[in-house]
Each structure stands twice: as structure tokens, then as C-alpha cells.
User: Which sequence fits this backbone?
């Protein structure tokens, strides 16, 4: 196969490219230039877009004997990933830029360009596995599908951030590191091949926030917008420079003028962009056992036939009469999966059930309830804490990814309070 290897300049993507070459594929390396701000390419950048990274990727490609190119995707990155990051915070939601980068850049812009140039697949250094299997069809036949599974390396598993790419795009993806159980194994493979990045530290922080100061970045783009911090009774307990820079579950940096009456710590429990207000309260208000998700998608092996048309569920996951099936859900990149009941519904509004009065139902991201698919989740184990609109929720059955959605609302059922 003709394979385009996405080479970030780190050890993971270099070894992934090397394994693709050794598998006999015709491999071309490409480094994505994602920033128009030269500060983000400076020496010592904390993210993954530094000058050193481009040079390291080139040296790895030279060592492997493969062609190497740099593609400027900075405009697309700014218009999708960065724009989404800003608009979501401005709307009082909590985005995950790595999820959006996988959706819009690595498995949309990059993959589409690779396909147009005649490549059969894109290889990346993600820690995840694609497993080919067969599922039964209602007519008695069988369908071959490609499933997304967790990596055996629990500490580095990236199936959570890959789920948003969906089945069609992941069908043209290769993850050569899928079987590695540890990062040390990958570094050993790099050293064995003489790749200079074998001991290179991992990148961290948001790549387009070069100094790691997310609040400062937001303020530089969105400006100062002074407002009030209030408690759950509506009493003003502090001031802020922009509600957009706060997230549900946040404890530090609240700038409160006085402690709570009971002396306990207070957390952000709500962000209200319409009034530029941040609401703080006790930790117990952060616990939720209900989640509504919008823009839901299901992975390969999905067929129509759930109680609500045209919603679909995985073909080998049999729902009950009301459409519910058991699974596990995860709401953070490295969070622990928790047991839940899940079902497909036609819109986020439908996912609120009877727990949320009609007047309190948070609109979906586009301001409507008319999205094609949504997801309703009831946690059946311990409640989750600090789940915020805008986060990605991924549904698993064991190691297998079943589906993904964006959290539109999270709350505690009245009977559980």
C-alpha cells in the first residue's frame, strides 16, 4: 500500500513510520505545520509544534530513507481547532483541542489530502488498535468491520481522542504502535533503528498555547470582560475578567473575596455566558449521574433498527425494549471508564428525559435541538465529578469503542440527590 506517515517529530510517529516501512509499504513522511504564530515554533516550545520537531521529523525520515515533506495546514488549524477552542470557552463549555485536531486536521484535512494524492492510508503514532472482525446481520449474513480498541498501554491509550474521527475515516488509518504495551518498548525500537528521537521527552500542554497559560491566551483573543462570581444563592463573592476562562470543576484561581460560611472549598459549578457570571458551590454539586450527548456517532457494525428512527446502535449490542444497553463511558482522555446504561435518541433534548424541566434544557451547540443523533447516558456505578458541556464522552464495551458524542448537559437525577 501507499502510506502517508504523519511525522510530528516525536518518537512515536518516527517508530510508526519505521514499522510501516518494514511492513513493505511505500511510505512518504509528512510534517504538519499548524501555527501561523512564530512564538509557537520557538526553540523549547512546550507543545508539539516547535522548530526542533520539524527538524527531528526530517532526520527520522532521512534515517528511514523515505521522502519527506512539510504541509502548511496552519490556516485550516486556526479556522477549526483554534476557532472551536475559543468559541466553546466563550459559550461556557469545556473543549478538548486534541479531539478537535484529530477530527478536523489529522483525520479530515490530512487524510482527505492523502486520499486525493493516491495514498491508501495514513499512519500515525497514536496508541490504539484497529481490529478487523465480523458481526452478524439480521438476515443471517455477516459483515466485516474494523473496530477501534484501546491500546494495551493504559497510560498512553488514545482511543478516547480518536473516537471522534468515526468509522469511515479510521478505516483508512493505520496505528502501528497499537500492540505496544509501554512507551519504553517504543523507545527501545527507536534506539534499535538509530533514530535520534529515541530519548526525546513527550510533548505536553496545548500545542498552540506555547507558554502553557490558557487563561492568558483566552484573554488575548477574547479580551477582558469583567463580571461577577456568585454563590448558589446568587450572592456576589468575587469578580473575574471573563467567565470564558473558567470551567466546571475548577477550584484554583477563583479570586474569591471571602471563604464559604462552612469553611469548605468552593468549585465552579456553572458558567453562564449570557450574564458573564461564574457560579461557585460545594464539591457535592459537581457529582452527576446523567449525561446528554449531542453529535453522536456509532462505529462500524451499526445498523438501523433501534426504537427511535433513524438512530442506530452497534449491531452486536442488543438493546432492551426501551433502547438501553449496558456499556462503560469515559469523559476525559485518561479518565477511568465507569459503568452505564446508554441509548441513542433523536436529539439532545430527548436525552434529558423527565429529569430536566423543558425550560432548563440547555440548547445544543448550534442553538437547536434538531441534530440527527444524540445519546442518553445513565451512570450505574459511582457518580462522575465535574463533567462539563463540550467534553467528549466515549462509549466502550471492554476495550472496544462503540460510539462518541459531545456532552451537552450533565446533571444529577432528583432521586439521587
Assistant:
Amino acid at each position: 500500500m501507499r502510506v502517508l506517515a504523519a511525522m510530528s517529530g516525536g518518537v512515536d510517529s518516527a517508530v510508526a513510520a519505521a514499522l510501516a516501512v518494514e511492513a513493505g509499504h511505500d511510505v512518504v513522511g509528512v510534517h504538519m505545520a499548524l501555527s501561523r504564530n512564530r512564538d509557537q515554533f520557538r526553540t523549547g516550545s512546550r507543545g508539539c509544534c516547535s522548530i526542533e520537531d520539524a527538524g527531528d521529523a526530517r532526520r527520522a525520515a532521512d534515517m528511514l530513507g523515505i521522502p519527506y515533506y512539510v504541509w502548511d495546514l496552519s490556516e485550516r488549524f486556526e479556522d477549526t481547532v483554534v476557532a472551536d477552542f475559543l468559541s466553546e470557552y466563550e459559550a461556557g463549555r469545556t473543549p478538548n483541542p486534541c479531539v478537535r485536531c484529530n477530527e478536523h486536521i489529522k483525520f479530515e484535512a490530512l487524510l482527505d489530502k492523502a486520499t486525493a494524492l493516491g495514498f491508501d492510508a495514513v499512519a500515525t503514532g497514536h496508541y490504539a488498535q484497529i481490529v478487523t472482525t465480523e458481526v452478524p446481520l439480521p438476515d443471517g449474513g455477516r459483515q466485516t468491520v474494523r473496530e477501534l480498541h484501546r491500546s494495551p498501554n493504559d497510560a498512553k491509550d488514545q482511543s478516547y481522542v480518536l473516537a471522534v474521527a468515526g468509522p469511515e475515516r479510521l478505516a483508512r488509518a493505520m496505528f502501528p504502535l497499537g500492540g505496544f504495551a509501554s512507551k519504553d518498548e517504543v523507545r527501545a525500537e527507536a534506539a534499535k533503528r538509530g533514530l535520534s528521537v529515541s530519548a526525546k521527552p513527550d510533548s505536553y500542554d496545548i500545542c498552540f498555547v506555547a507558554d502553557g497559560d490558557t487563561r492568558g491566551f483566552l484573554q488575548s483573543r477574547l479580551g477582558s470582560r469583567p463580571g461577577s462570581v456568585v454563590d448558589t444563592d446568587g450572592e456576589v463573592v468575587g469578580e473575574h475578567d471573563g467567565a470564558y476562562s473558567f470551567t466546571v470543576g475548577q477550584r484554583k484561581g477563583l479570586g474569591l473575596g471571602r471563604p464559604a460560611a462552612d469553611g469548605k472549598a468552593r468549585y465552579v459549578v456553572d458558567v453562564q455566558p449570557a450574564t458573564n457570571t461564574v457560579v461557585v458551590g460545594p464539591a457535592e454539586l459537581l457529582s452527576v449521574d446523567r449525561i446528554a450527548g449531542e453529535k453522536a456517532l456509532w462505529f462500524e457494525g451499526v445498523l438501523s433498527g433501534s426504537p427511535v428512527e433513524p438512530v442506530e446502535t452497534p449491531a452486536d449490542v442488543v438493546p432492551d425494549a426501551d433502547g438501553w444497553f449496558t456499556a462503560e463511558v469515559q469523559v476525559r482522555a485518561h479518565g477511568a471508564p465507569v459503568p452505564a446504561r446508554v441509548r441513542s435518541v433523536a436529539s439532545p433534548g430527548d436525552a434529558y428525559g423527565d429529569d430536566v424541566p423543558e425550560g432548563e434544557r440547555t440548547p445544543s451547540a448550534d442553538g437547536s435541538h434538531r441534530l440527527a443523533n444524540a445519546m442518553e447516558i445513565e451512570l450505574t456505578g459511582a457518580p462522575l465529578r465535574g463533567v462539563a458541556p463540550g467534553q467528549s464522552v466515549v462509549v466502550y464495551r471492554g476495550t472496544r469503542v462503540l460510539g462518541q458524542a459531545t456532552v451537552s448537559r450533565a446533571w444529577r437525577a432528583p432521586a439521587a440527590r
